[in-house]
Amino acid sequence: MTDALHSQTAESAATGAFVVLDAVQHLGSPARQLIGLGCAMRVICDTLGFDPNEIFRVVSRMEQDCQYRQVNTLSAVKRYAEGELRKLIP
């Protein structure tokens, strides 16, 4: 399973992120969004036997690769999150 984790593309990460961001934006406050995301991340990682920090390292490498290749696959996710989630910040 670890090999499958490291073989994912930035495009697959972006697709999943858009689905998750779309779902959490309906939770209301940023605090509820963050706690919900954190809880889901922890439960999924525990269930599948992964360290959540390893997931963040994989995503960081994807971001660096996108920047190096000058593609905006993951920066598009960031712009979407900024546009949708910041609406709820008082």
The parts where pLDDT drops under 50 for at least 5 residues are: none
The radius of gyration computed from the alpha-carbon positions, rounded to a whole number of angstroms, is: 14 Å
Instruction: Name the average pLDDT.
Output: 90
What gross morphology would you assign? flat
Taking the sheet with the most strands, its summary is: none
Helix/strand order: HHHHH
Quote the beta fraction.
under 5%
Let me know the number of strands.
Answer: 0
Coarse structural class: mainly alpha
Regarding quaternary structure, what we see is single chain
User: What level of helicity do the residues show?
Assistant: over 70%
Ends distance: 41 Å
Count of helical regions: 5
Features:
mainly alpha, 0% strand, flat
Task: Note down, in words, how this protein is organized.
This protein has 90 residues and is mainly α. Helices cover 78% and strands 0% of the residues. It has helices at residues 2-6, 10-24, 30-48, 52-69, 73-85. α2 runs parallel beside α5.
